[in-house]
Amino acid sequence: MSYKVITSSETVRDIEEAVFYKEGLGVYPENVVNFKQAVVSTIRKLVDSPKIGANLSARIDEETEIKYSVIDDYILFYEIEADTVKVLRLLPAKTNWMNTILKYL
């Protein structure tokens, strides 16, 4: 079964900000490219295998259907609804991502 993947405008902005931040820190250009490719690859994999991510409810005290996947030093959050995967956010792992993602519960 193939799923339809919808990437939110927030996620697109998050990806752009992550790339801007990495470039600003002087990360080697090839590592920035590798990061972008990893993000795109992960999102593409959701078409065929959206259940590969970990369940967020195992990490927080809330019951949720949100899943996550770690990409370098970022976390990609998404939710499966029937035959659609909604990519919610790409947030830095070292920030207080929980406050941001709890808005989706």
From TrEMBL:
Task: Print the keywords alphabetically.
Answer: Toxin-antitoxin system
- Superkingdom of origin organism: Bacteria
State the InterPro entries in the record.
Answer: RelE/ParE_toxin (IPR007712), RelE/ParE_toxin_dom_sf (IPR035093)
What Gene3D superfamilies does this protein's entry cite?
Answer: RelE-like
Return the protein name: Plasmid stabilisation system protein
